[in-house]
C-alpha cells in the first residue's frame, strides 16, 4: 500500500556541480526537495521506488546500487541508487533516476531498500495507472519518489519556446499535486503534455494509480518556472 510520496523535478541543474555559477537560483527548489524526502523517511516505508522517465531502450527496473553519473553534463560526478555499500554491475541510471539518486544521497537516505523504475514518456494513462497499482502492492508500506518536470514552454527562452497553454497546464498539475487529487492527475492529457514537453506526466500518473484508495493528503511545497520550465515539489502522506 502506498503510504507516502514525494514529487520532485529532475533537471540536472538541481545538482550544484552541474549548475556551477547558477546553482543559487535553485536553492529554494533543493530545500523543498529535502523537506519532501523528510516526509518519505517519516513514513517509515518498507520499500522506496524512484520513478522517472527514460528514452526507449533505457527504461525498466533498476536495483539498489545501480550506478549513474553526470558526465554527460560535463561533470565528473558519480551516484548510485540508494544506500548500497557499492555500485552493482548493470545498466547506468537514466538522467531522471540519477537526479533521484543524487537527492537521496544528498539527504542521507538510510531507510527502506530502494529500487528505480524508468518508463517511456509515451506510456498511456491506463498503463501508468496499472503500473502504479502494481507498485503499491509490492510491500505493506510503499513510498514513491516521483521525479519529473512540468512544461518546458513557459517563456520565450524556454527549451520549447513560449506556449500560452503551458502556465495553465502547470497550474492544474500543481493544484492536483497539492490536493493529492489522483483523479485529476490521471486526467492529464498525454498529447498536450508531449506538446508542452512535460516529462513528469507519466510518473505523475503512475503516482495517481498507486494512490488509489490510499486516502492520502497532499501539500505543495514549491512551484516556479526557472529557465522557463515548470518545477513542482509536493508530498502525499
Walk me through what this model shows.
The protein has a single domain, classed as 3-Layer(aba) Sandwich (Protocatechuate 4,5-dioxygenase, Chain B). It has eight helices and nine strands. β4 (67-69) and β5 form a beta hairpin. It is an alpha/beta fold and 237 residues long. α4 packs across α8. It is 33% helix and 20% strand. It starts with a strand and ends with a strand. The strands form two sheets. It has a seven-stranded mixed beta sheet, sandwiched between helices. It has helices spanning 16-19, 27-42, 95-106, 125-136, 166-178, 182-186, 190-195, 201-210, and strands spanning 2-8, 47-53, 60-62, 67-69, 78-80, 114-119, 142-147, 218-224, 231-236.
CATH class: Alpha Beta
Relative helix content: 25-40%
CATH architecture: 3-Layer(aba) Sandwich
Gyration radius, to the nearest Å?
Answer: 16 Å
Strand content: 15-25%
List the helices and strands and how they pair.
Layout (H helix, E strand, L loop, with lengths): L1 E7 L7 H4 L7 H16 L4 E7 L6 E3 L4 E3 L8 E3 L14 H12 L7 E6 L5 H12 L5 E6 L18 H13 L3 H5 L3 H6 L5 H10 L7 E7 L6 E6 L1
Which characteristics define this entry?
Protocatechuate 4,5-dioxygenase, Chain B, 20% strand, 8 helices, alpha/beta, 237 residues, 9 strands, single chain, two-stranded antiparallel ribbon
